[in-house]
Design a protein that fits this description.
This protein has 14 helices and 19 strands. By secondary structure, it is of the alpha/beta class. It holds the Pfam family Glyco_hydro_1.
């Protein structure tokens, strides 16, 4: 069979999940929060991949742990990646490869390191060379959230709490993402990049904070504006320049865009909308506008095909059951799709429950958060049953038609003899 025979061109809607792979450090670099370790994936990865197949899911957000794979300049330990990606290929599960998820190896330090972009581009090149059958990538997950939590809120990694720290982290993260795309495209010219990013909105809770909310609502777009080479507004340009971005650095982003290879990944949670209070603090607002309205804002800004790339709900903390949240998000995706916006797919994140995300990993409490399709004993949860039913019912019902681009994808098993491990 030829490679073309193995290509899939969705009319079929993409249903996905992911393996939670966050690796930030806390306590000023002394403690690594490795979610693959804490949630048991290193021990149960074969079972986890089998569960993906059991649900009828063909797409998996997944990546090797950067901190144990990228062990030094030009040095890589591929043992775990070779084993896991060989199994994904055998199962014909399409990975959306997440190369950096909220942390870097100890020897790089943190996101303030100006060497990070070039080093990460070298890693992306090495990964693409080793696994040439892989087509879909998220080079760096949630760039805005990563910079915000690491350098504006002081929670992770460099644990800074300043606008200058935030801008420094952001410019390094986005440049690393851009250079990684360039490196991967040199190896795999038909690569596609699903840039998973948090879709957010800030609501002014008092009249005196309207200006603050406007600033926050402009700042939420910075990572994607720079990544896609979109000119920022005057207020954000001033903000960037006042906090350490040079004109040459800004020009780099405007001159190096790979937008034509990108799919806009949109993540939405109950905590993505924020109240801005009179004292300048923010708090979770719940789904005031919801994914449908906020997702539309992001689409209208970037005009790219969209993929819903993350959602979940801890029903122990939320106002509704997680099965109802699943249905609400699915209805929002369908509304966007039916209104003519090219939404290519939907994701419940993640496959299994997680640890300590109720405090954004910034405390080591070892508290299980019931967020997955399966619990940590790998037993299916009600939301997993509901997602499987949803896929069974709707999997063949939402053709792309004229509302979605027909993106040629090559299934892992159909790439041919060129593939490595």
């Amino acid at each position: 069979m030829t490679q073309m025979d193995h290509r899939i061109r969705p009319p079929e809607f993409i249903f996905a999940t992911g393996i939670e792979s966050s690796i930030p450090t806390i306590h000023h670099g002394k403690l690594r929060r490795d979610q693959m370790e804490e949630c048991g994936h290193y021990r149960h990865w074969r079972t986890d991949f089998a569960l993906v197949k059991q649900l009828g899911i063909r797409f998996l957000r997944y990546g090797p742990p950067l901190h144990t794979t990228f062990i030094g300049p030009g040095r890589y330990d591929w043992e775990f990646a070779d084993a896991t990606f060989a199994e994904l290929r055998r199962l014909d599960i399409v990975p959306i490869v997440d190369l950096c998820h909220f942390g870097v190896p100890d020897w790089i330090g943190n996101f303030q390191n100006p060497d990070f972009p070039d080093l990460f581009a070298q890693y992306a090149d090495a990964f693409a060379q080793r696994f040439p059958w892989i087509q879909l990538y998220t080079p760096i997950n949630e760039m805005y959230v990563c910079a915000k939590f690491s350098a504006l809120y002081g929670w992770w990694n460099e644990q800074l709490a300043s606008d200058r720290g935030f801008v420094t982290a952001l410019k390094h993260i986005v440049k690393a993402n851009v250079l990684a795309m360039r490196s991967i495209l040199r190896v795999r010219p038909d690569a596609l990049f699903v840039q998973s990013e948090s879709t957010e909105f800030y609501h002014a809770w008092e009249p005196e904070v309207v200006a603050d909310a406007c600033l926050m609502n402009a700042r939420r777009f910075l990572s994607l504006d720079l990544n896609y080479g979109r000119e920022v507004g005057a207020d954000m340009l001033r903000y960037l320049m006042d906090n350490g971005m040079s004109a040459d650095e800004y020009d780099f982003f405007m001159q190096h865009s790979f937008k034509q290879h990108c799919i806009l990944g949109t993540d939405y949670y109950m905590t993505n909308e924020h109240h801005v209070h009179a004292d300048g603090t923010t708090s979770a607002a719940g789904d005031v506008f919801g994914y449908c309205l906020i997702g539309r804002q992001y689409y209208e800004r970037y005009r790219l095909p969209m993929l819903h790339t993350e959602t979940n709900l801890n029903e122990a903390l939320g106002p509704i059951p997680d099965t109802e949240w699943l249905q609400r998000q699915w209805l929002s995706v369908r509304e966007l799709h039916d209104s003519g916006i090219p939404v290519l797919g939907f994701t419940w994140y993640s496959l299994t429950d997680q640890i300590d995300w109720d405090v954004a990993l910034r405390e080591k409490n070892d508290r299980v958060n019931p967020l997955g399709l399966f619990d940590l004993d790998r037993k299916i949860r009600p939301v997993g049953e509901a997602y499987r039913t949803l896929i069974d019912k709707w999997g063949g019902f939402l053709p792309a038609q004229s509302t979605c681009l027909k993106i040629p994808l090559t299934l892992p098993g159909g790439f041919g003899d060129r593939a490595g491990p």
